[in-house]
Amino acid sequence: MTISILIILLSVVSLCIAIYIKMWRTRSKILHDFAHHIRNPLSIIKINNEIALLHPNLPLDIKTTLQSNIDELDRASKIVNDLLK
User: Which residues belong to any copy of the Signal transduction histidine kinase dimerisation/phosphoacceptor domain (predicted)?
Assistant: First the structure.
C-alpha cells in the first residue's frame, strides 16, 4: 500500500468517526429534550392523582384506579429515565 492510499483511508475513517460523533451528540440532545418535555406532564399528572387519593370519602374503585394510574406513571417515568442512560 502506498502512503497516499493510507492517507486517503485515514481521512475517510476520520471523517466517519466525526460523523458518528455528531450523530451521537444530536441523538443525545433529542433524547434530553424529549425527556424534559415528557417528565413535566408525567409529574403533574402523578401529583394530581396523589392529591385525589387524599380525599377521605373516595370509593374503593376510584382509589384503585388512581393508584393504578400512579403505578403506570412511575413505570412511564422509569422508561423515560432509561432512555437517557
Answer: 27-84
Q: How many Å apart are CA 48 and CA 13, to the nearest integer?
A: 53
- Residue 85's pLDDT band, with cuts at 50, 70 and 90, is confident
Asked if 83 and 34 count as a contact pair (C-beta separation under 8 A), the reply is yes
**What is the per-residue burial (b if ≥16 Cβ within 10 Å, else e) of 2-13?**
eeeeeeeeeeee
Instruction: Report yes or no on whether pTM surpasses 0.90.
Output: no
Q: Which residue has the cell 376510584?
A: 62
Give CB contacts under 8 A, 24+ apart, made by 23-27. Answer: none
